[in-house]
Amino acid sequence: MQSGMNISRRREIRMLAQQMRPEFMHTGDEKYIRDVYAVCHPYEAPRPSYWYNLNPTLIVQDITMNNMIVGFTSFYIADNNGALGLFGKDVCVLPEYRGVGIAKVLHAARLTIGYNYGCRMFIGQTHDEAMARILMKAGAHKCIKINAQGDYLYMGNIEEV
Fold first, then answer.
1. 104 belongs to a structural domain
2. Within 10 Å of residue 116's Cβ, how many Cβ atoms?
Protein backbone atom coordinates (compact mmCIF):
# COMPACT_ATOMS: atom_id res chain seq x y z
CA MET A 1 0.00 0.00 0.00
CA GLN A 2 1.25 3.49 -0.80
CA SER A 3 2.43 5.19 2.38
CA GLY A 4 -0.14 7.45 3.97
CA MET A 5 -3.07 6.13 1.92
CA ASN A 6 -6.04 4.76 3.79
CA ILE A 7 -7.24 1.25 3.02
CA SER A 8 -10.68 2.28 1.74
CA ARG A 9 -9.13 4.68 -0.82
CA ARG A 10 -6.76 1.95 -1.99
CA ARG A 11 -9.72 -0.40 -2.40
CA GLU A 12 -11.58 2.29 -4.34
CA ILE A 13 -8.59 2.77 -6.68
CA ARG A 14 -8.40 -1.00 -7.30
CA MET A 15 -12.08 -1.04 -8.27
CA LEU A 16 -11.73 2.07 -10.46
CA ALA A 17 -8.71 0.60 -12.24
CA GLN A 18 -10.86 -2.28 -13.47
CA GLN A 19 -13.17 0.23 -15.17
CA MET A 20 -10.53 2.58 -16.60
CA ARG A 21 -10.34 2.55 -20.39
CA PRO A 22 -7.52 4.36 -22.15
CA GLU A 23 -8.58 7.04 -24.59
CA PHE A 24 -6.68 9.44 -26.80
CA MET A 25 -5.76 12.73 -25.14
CA HIS A 26 -7.48 15.95 -26.08
CA THR A 27 -5.56 19.17 -26.76
CA GLY A 28 -6.50 20.62 -23.37
CA ASP A 29 -5.02 17.58 -21.58
CA GLU A 30 -1.38 18.41 -22.29
CA LYS A 31 -0.80 20.45 -19.11
CA TYR A 32 -2.11 17.60 -16.95
CA ILE A 33 -0.05 15.01 -18.83
CA ARG A 34 3.02 17.15 -18.25
CA ASP A 35 2.17 17.25 -14.53
CA VAL A 36 2.00 13.44 -14.40
CA TYR A 37 5.29 13.20 -16.33
CA ALA A 38 6.99 15.55 -13.83
CA VAL A 39 5.89 13.36 -10.91
CA CYS A 40 7.00 10.15 -12.65
CA HIS A 41 10.30 11.58 -13.97
CA PRO A 42 11.34 14.25 -11.44
CA TYR A 43 14.98 14.34 -12.59
CA GLU A 44 14.32 14.42 -16.35
CA ALA A 45 13.70 17.44 -18.54
CA PRO A 46 10.13 17.92 -19.74
CA ARG A 47 9.28 16.71 -23.22
CA PRO A 48 9.60 19.37 -25.96
CA SER A 49 6.64 21.53 -26.96
CA TYR A 50 3.96 19.63 -28.87
CA TRP A 51 5.50 16.24 -27.97
CA TYR A 52 2.18 14.80 -26.85
CA ASN A 53 0.42 16.10 -29.96
CA LEU A 54 3.04 14.66 -32.33
CA ASN A 55 3.17 11.28 -30.60
CA PRO A 56 -0.18 9.57 -30.05
CA THR A 57 -0.91 9.71 -26.33
CA LEU A 58 -3.44 7.64 -24.42
CA ILE A 59 -4.71 8.71 -21.00
CA VAL A 60 -6.63 7.15 -18.13
CA GLN A 61 -8.71 9.22 -15.73
CA ASP A 62 -10.15 8.86 -12.23
CA ILE A 63 -13.88 9.58 -12.54
CA THR A 64 -14.16 10.07 -8.78
CA MET A 65 -11.60 12.89 -8.89
CA ASN A 66 -13.23 15.11 -11.56
CA ASN A 67 -11.68 13.02 -14.36
CA MET A 68 -8.15 13.74 -13.17
CA ILE A 69 -5.54 12.22 -15.49
CA VAL A 70 -3.74 9.58 -13.44
CA GLY A 71 -1.71 7.90 -16.16
CA PHE A 72 -0.70 8.03 -19.81
CA THR A 73 1.41 6.45 -22.50
CA SER A 74 2.83 7.84 -25.72
CA PHE A 75 4.02 5.92 -28.75
CA TYR A 76 4.70 6.25 -32.44
CA ILE A 77 4.61 4.01 -35.48
CA ALA A 78 7.54 3.84 -37.88
CA ASP A 79 7.85 2.16 -41.26
CA ASN A 80 11.13 0.35 -41.97
CA ASN A 81 10.87 -0.76 -45.61
CA GLY A 82 7.33 -2.02 -45.13
CA ALA A 83 7.83 -3.48 -41.67
CA LEU A 84 5.81 -1.38 -39.25
CA GLY A 85 7.11 -1.02 -35.72
CA LEU A 86 5.45 0.42 -32.64
CA PHE A 87 7.85 2.41 -30.47
CA GLY A 88 6.73 2.89 -26.87
CA LYS A 89 7.50 6.23 -25.25
CA ASP A 90 6.60 6.36 -21.58
CA VAL A 91 4.03 4.66 -19.44
CA CYS A 92 3.49 7.02 -16.50
CA VAL A 93 1.11 6.39 -13.60
CA LEU A 94 0.80 8.59 -10.52
CA PRO A 95 2.22 6.86 -7.42
CA GLU A 96 -1.16 6.59 -5.65
CA TYR A 97 -2.51 4.62 -8.64
CA ARG A 98 0.39 2.21 -9.14
CA GLY A 99 0.21 -1.51 -8.50
CA VAL A 100 -3.37 -2.05 -9.69
CA GLY A 101 -2.78 -2.82 -13.37
CA ILE A 102 -3.09 0.62 -14.97
CA ALA A 103 0.34 0.49 -16.65
CA LYS A 104 -0.47 -2.95 -18.03
CA VAL A 105 -3.77 -1.65 -19.46
CA LEU A 106 -2.03 1.36 -21.06
CA HIS A 107 0.65 -0.84 -22.64
CA ALA A 108 -1.93 -3.35 -23.93
CA ALA A 109 -3.97 -0.51 -25.45
CA ARG A 110 -1.01 0.82 -27.42
CA LEU A 111 -0.16 -2.70 -28.61
CA THR A 112 -3.75 -3.17 -29.79
CA ILE A 113 -3.64 0.11 -31.71
CA GLY A 114 -0.31 -0.83 -33.27
CA TYR A 115 -1.56 -4.29 -34.22
CA ASN A 116 -4.69 -2.82 -35.81
CA TYR A 117 -2.47 -0.54 -37.92
CA GLY A 118 -0.32 -3.44 -39.09
CA CYS A 119 2.58 -3.24 -36.61
CA ARG A 120 4.07 -6.61 -35.80
CA MET A 121 7.02 -5.52 -33.65
CA PHE A 122 7.33 -3.49 -30.48
CA ILE A 123 10.40 -1.55 -29.38
CA GLY A 124 10.70 0.15 -26.01
CA GLN A 125 13.11 0.88 -23.20
CA THR A 126 13.00 0.94 -19.43
CA HIS A 127 15.05 0.61 -16.29
CA ASP A 128 11.96 0.07 -14.13
CA GLU A 129 11.52 -3.54 -12.98
CA ALA A 130 7.72 -3.39 -12.90
CA MET A 131 7.60 -2.03 -16.45
CA ALA A 132 10.14 -4.63 -17.60
CA ARG A 133 7.82 -7.38 -16.30
CA ILE A 134 4.87 -5.85 -18.20
CA LEU A 135 6.91 -5.68 -21.42
CA MET A 136 8.15 -9.26 -21.06
CA LYS A 137 4.70 -10.64 -20.24
CA ALA A 138 3.49 -8.98 -23.46
CA GLY A 139 6.16 -10.84 -25.45
CA ALA A 140 9.13 -8.46 -25.51
CA HIS A 141 12.59 -9.59 -24.53
CA LYS A 142 15.47 -7.70 -22.97
CA CYS A 143 18.13 -6.91 -25.56
CA ILE A 144 20.95 -4.53 -24.62
CA LYS A 145 21.79 -1.84 -22.10
CA ILE A 146 21.51 1.45 -23.96
CA ASN A 147 22.66 4.14 -21.52
CA ALA A 148 24.41 4.86 -18.24
CA GLN A 149 21.06 5.29 -16.42
CA GLY A 150 20.48 1.55 -16.76
CA ASP A 151 17.82 1.58 -19.47
CA TYR A 152 17.55 -1.59 -21.49
CA LEU A 153 16.08 -1.97 -24.95
CA TYR A 154 13.14 -4.38 -25.18
CA MET A 155 11.85 -5.81 -28.44
CA GLY A 156 9.21 -8.31 -29.34
CA ASN A 157 6.50 -9.39 -31.74
CA ILE A 158 3.06 -7.91 -31.43
CA GLU A 159 0.55 -10.73 -31.46
CA GLU A 160 -3.16 -10.19 -31.75
CA VAL A 161 -4.18 -8.69 -28.43
1. yes
2. 10
Q: What is the DSSP letter of 147?
A: S
Number of domains into which the chain is organized? 1
Going from the C-alpha of 128 to that of each of 26, 77, 116, 150, the distances in angstroms are: 28, 23, 27, 9
User: Tell me: the pLDDT tens digits for 38-62?
Assistant: 999 999 999 998 999 999 999 999 9
Split at pLDDT 50, 70, 90, the class of 7 is: confident
**Crossing angle of helices 102-116/129-137, nearest 10°?**
40
The pLDDT, as a whole number, for residue 159 is 87
The pLDDT tens digits of the residues spanning 81-99 come to: 888 999 999 999 999 999 9
Asked, for residue 147, whether it belongs to a domain, the answer is yes
Domain that holds residue 12: 7-157
User: What CATH number has the domain bearing residue 131?
Assistant: 3.40.630.30
Whether 2 is in a domain gets the answer: no
